[in-house]
Amino acid sequence: MELGAAVVRPEAGGDRAMTGRLAAITGARLLFLTLLLGATAFFYLRGDLEIYPRSLRITFATIAGAYALGAAYAVSLRVGVPSAPLAYTQIVLDQVTWTAIVYVTGGATSGATSFYALTCLVGAMLIGLRGATLGALTGIGLYAALCMAFVWHWLPAPSDQPGYVTSMGEIVYPLLVNTLGIGVVALLAGYLAERLRLTGGELEDATRRAQEAERLALLGRLAAGLAHEIRNPLGSISGSIEMLHESPNLTDEEKQLCAIVQREAARLNHLVTDMLDLSKPKLPRVERVDVAALARDVVALAARSERSGAGDVTVAYEGPDGAAYAQCDGEQMRQVVWNLVRNAVQASGAGTQVRVIVRTDPEGVELSVADTGPGIDESARDKLFDVFFTTRPHGAGMGLAVVKRIIDDHAPFGASIAVDSAGTGGATFRVHLRAT
Residues 7-10: contacts with CB within 8 Å, 24+ apart? Predict the structure, then answer.
């Protein structure tokens, strides 16, 4: 039944963002390569096929290859090829392109070796540290292979360009300097990309919290009005129906109708309470609390309420008979357990059992509420604790939001919550509290 903690961010958004960056960089890359190769052909080599026949052929072939690769990238993005493998491929092939340019513009001493570092920057923009590292390793490897091919005479220098460095003594210095430069650029680019990623994640979390705070503020204003407008007549209704229920002249059917009214009034009272709890958060007053005794009290209370009191769903306690102390706000944690039990009871079928489990470990106390309901669908996990999100037709979607808000307020004191569910049956909410 247990699959692991819920509330995992989807990756689809990140893949779409990378696809957008890859498309933009592909277009910029084609423009840059056109300008660079054009400058190489018509300024460096002066466009003279009689003087530089071999070098110009290589340059024009590189231009054609760059355009062919650009077209292939565009088609791949359009047909939906995953962006990450495409980005890795582009990084490697770009370094191959720079190697061809380095070959025809001076070899080991060519100024075009700086373009290896440019690909490291692009890799960092697309993928982060891994992209910068791949660009550095590929660029250094290809450049070193080109230099060694000159030294070992595996690859002749362009026959139409004299003065190439081909001896080991002359090639060591530019090889070391360029290798160091590419490596430093890759490290800096990767580091900055990782810092930007982390900062972007923090900004996203801050934005989400600000939006949540705005929703809660709106809910607070609404709840204040509802509390006044609903609580007073609701109290009168509840008191009147209790007096009516005690009347000896009622038939069994009338008593059953009174019980329905009482139950619905209690549900409405819970709804108003949840709204007030959610809209007016209080900072926890953390102290040494006996979580086991708290759980036993909630189970005893739940056994006499709503479906549990009717024997429809039973609530059982499993844990130590003695104390299990943890750091928390006792009243707020009681609200957490009560909301989780109420949620579990509502999710469970007739004749089933909800278990409230308390276990201790070296780090603290784990309090779990387990049901045998329909489980949690994978698509609902990300929104499980959102305000107003519910999978039940008559749910308000505030009970679990109150739980998450209280646990988040306890997070500086070591509290956390996780949800286990296979999606095919049963769910377990686990609250972990730090030991005293």
Answer: 7/381, 7/382, 7/384, 7/385, 7/419, 8/381, 8/382, 9/382, 10/382
DSSP string, 257-294: HHHHHHHHHHHHHHHHHHHHHHHS------EEEEHHHH
The amino acid at residue 416 is S
pLDDT given at position 358: 94
pLDDT value, residue 273: 67
* CA–CA gap between residue 108 and residue 24 (Å, rounded): 31
| SS3 (DSSP) at 318 | strand
Give the whole-angstrom CA distance, residue 384 versus residue 390.
Answer: 7
Pairing of strands 287-290, 325-328: antiparallel
Write down the pTM of the prediction.
Answer: 0.48
Query: Which residues of the chain carry a pLDDT beneath 70?
Result: 1-18, 37, 41, 47-50, 200-203, 213, 216-229, 231-232, 267, 270-281, 304-311, 387-398, 422-424
- Structural domains in the chain, sorted by start: 12-209 (no CATH), 213-278 (1.10.287), 284-434 (3.30.565.10)
* Helices and strands per DSSP (H, E), number in the chain: 11, 7
Which three-class secondary structure state does DSSP give residue 86?
helix
